[in-house]
Amino acid sequence: MIGRGYDDFQLFDLWCHDDIFFATRMKSNTVVDIRDLIYDDLEQNGFRESLVIIGSAQKKMENHLRLVEFYDDTGKLYQIVTNRFDLSAKDISELYRSRWQIELMFKRMKQHLQINHIHGRTEQSA
């Protein structure tokens, strides 16, 4: 699952326990506890990776996540947390960029085909 700005830490822990992979953009106010800096070349090659636990003292995750930070073409910094440790930072950034292209496709469909609402048949589409 690739999402944008979710912070349901209990759900993230459940997904980690159930081996469901996710990558999501962190909200700006998310509390991040950096446990280990894996790779820091943000200024030269555009990536930084850390092992983190997210959440406040009252609402903190049990599982470690990987924080991947990168700049887009306009210089905007993105922070993606994921439980995928097998992919490169570049792969994670490409997953997120691909997700954005899907969002743009839906936007164009709604505008050009005059679709106001897209219906789905699963809980996730509600």
Describe the structure.
This protein is α+β, with helices and mostly antiparallel strands and 126 residues long. It has a six-stranded mixed β-sheet, covered by helices on one side. The chain is 26% helix and 29% strand. The model has no long low-confidence stretch (mean pLDDT 84). It has helices spanning 9-17, 89-112; strands at 2-4, 23-25, 32-41, 47-54, 65-71, 77-82.
Summarize the helices and strands and which ones pair or pack.
Layout: E1 2-4, H1 9-17, E2 23-25, E3 32-41, E4 47-54, E5 65-71, E6 77-82, H2 89-112
Parallel strand pairs: 1-2
Antiparallel strand pairs: 2-6, 3-4, 4-5, 5-6
Average per-residue pLDDT, rounded, comes to 84
Please give the share of residues in helix.
25-40%
Oligomer class: single chain
Please summarize the sheet with the most strands.
6 strands, mixed
- Summarize the helix and strand pattern as letters: EHEEEEEH
Rg, alpha carbons: 16 Å
Structural class, by secondary structure, is: alpha+beta
Q: Count the domains.
A: 1
Uncertain runs: none
Number of helices: 2
User: In total, how many beta strands?
Assistant: 6
- Lateral arrangement of strands in the main beta sheet: 1-2-6-5-4-3
Tell me the β content: 25-35%
User: Distance between the terminal alpha carbons, to the nearest Å?
Assistant: 16 Å
Shape: globular
Task: Please give a handful of descriptors for the protein shown.
26% helix; 2 helices; six-stranded mixed sheet; Transposase; Transposase_11; RNaseH-like_sf; 126 residues; alpha+beta
Give a concise summary.
By secondary structure, the protein is α+β, with helices and mostly antiparallel strands.
